[in-house]
Amino acid sequence: MRATADNGGIAEGRLARLARPLRESLSRRLLVLTVLFVMLAEVLIFVPSIANFRLTWLEQRLAAAQIASLALEARPDNMVSPALREELLKNAQVYAVALHRDEARRLVLSEDMPPTVDTSFDLRDAMAMFLVMDAFETLLAGDGRVVLVTGNPRFAAGESIEIVFDETPLRHAMLRYGKNIFLLSLVISIITAGLVFTALHFVLVRPMRRITENMVAFRNDPEDARRVIAPSGRADEIGIAERELSLMQKEIRATLSQKAHLASLGTAVSKISHDLRNILASAQLMSDRIGAIDDPMVQHLAPRLFAAIDRAIDLCANTLKFGRAEEAPPRRTRIALAAFADEVAEAAWAPQAHIRWVNDVPPALEIEADPDHLFRILLNLTRNAAQVLAENATGGDIRISARREADRVHVDIVDTGPGLPEKARAHLFEPFSGGVRAGGSGLGLAIVEELVRAHGGHIELVESAASGTHFRICIPDTSGALSACDATGIASA
Question: Which of 140, 270, 364, 434 has the most CB atoms lying inside 10 A of its own CB?
Fold first, then answer.
């Protein structure tokens, strides 16, 4: 039992080693498959051809036997000498010849003691399927079989003609014919496979190998511009794959380059924020001294100054944390949105006569949100609108409105500016891609979108045309945080 198992394992190992080159190379697999398919086609050709070869051989023997029988027709008594009879039978390669004529069967030629017939075949009106079966029966039979074959005589010399002969010469002839067909098929297969392999290698395999090698090289060093594939200009599927791969690689390189720049920028911003936080801490100490001045105007402005400095310090601290973690989760409280919006507007831009702030938020409306996050959301949106209107000589309005629907609040911020450029609309919430002004970084809207999503909400650009820009924010309450707001402000599960 162990010896059998060891032999089986050795055989499997050898088969695996033989099959490994085929699994690892598409070219070798294609060559072997081409040879096999051509050989299969040759086998389909061999089956009818070997049957036709046997039929032709038998018809030639029937014709030779019929010619031998004509020697008796020339004699008045239909008799020949024994020596001539033996010569005629030997030339026809038969033991006996019988002819059916005028509804009578007559033995024309025969040896004195013909051998016993082993089997018989009738070629008259034989179907192709039976001819094929008879041919393979002849190939599989051994030597020395004596057969009786019946056929139609040539030139309508009778109803039928029968011959008895040794099948061994026919079998040997068929074997030689089959061997020649096999060798010819093998040569044709190799030549055809070589031509097909060469054609497919240059048309398909080599371009695919170029693509795969490029993909492996690009994976190893995607930042190397030399490893981006250069499309060959083909119009077929290979050309499409090359062009799409090239575009994908370029986009990946651009994304990696952008992320590298962002990482460098983040490092620089962290350093600046660290020093700025220290400066603001000193400013906070000075603001405490200013708060001690007994002046009504100073007392009125001091709390807002303190709040602004505190927010700036917190923002610097959060910036330092950004490289190590995501935005801190919101700490929600209930906020009176109308008064909060006015506070944001005062911090968003310096008062200007040609920019009008319109607060349409109901005084009693409250929103559940993180105060710092909400302040940054509204500050970025209103500051963007104010900067656009400041560049417009005619000025305009910035209007904020809000409404509550069940467990969520919808906030609309509308300005009467010239609208967003096409590039900004295409990459609205992408850092460094969706800037609303020339020279803008696009970080403001990206920060807004991240903070709104942290609340389980949604921000959308409702409209941007020559008449103005309209942003809408949906923020659900804490109880409804598991249901997000969709693009139309309606909750979706």
Answer: 434
Domain that holds residue 59: 11-190
Do 56 and 124 meet the contact criterion of CB atoms below 8 Å apart? no
CA 209, CA 188: separation in Å to the nearest integer? 28
398 half-sphere exposure, CB direction, 13 A CA radius: 28
Tokens linked to 211: 């693509």
Last residue of a domain, one of 154, 170, 190: 190
Q: Tell me the CB-side half-sphere exposure of residue 414, using CA atoms within 13 A.
A: 17
Q: Pull the structure tokens for residue 464.
A: 């941007």
Residue 201 belongs to some domain of the structure = no
* Range list of β-strands (E), 364-457: 366-369, 396-405, 408-415
What is the percent of the chain where pLDDT is above 90? Answer: 17
Tell which of 190, 224, 254 closes a domain.
Answer: 190
* φ, ψ dihedrals at 125, nearest 5°: 55, 35
Between residues 251 and 441, the one the model is more confident about? 251
CA distances to 143, 217, 249, 250 from 230, rounded to whole Å, are 68, 13, 11, 11
pLDDT one-digit tens code per residue, 13-61: 555 565 565 566 666 777 777 778 877 877 788 888 889 999 999 989 8
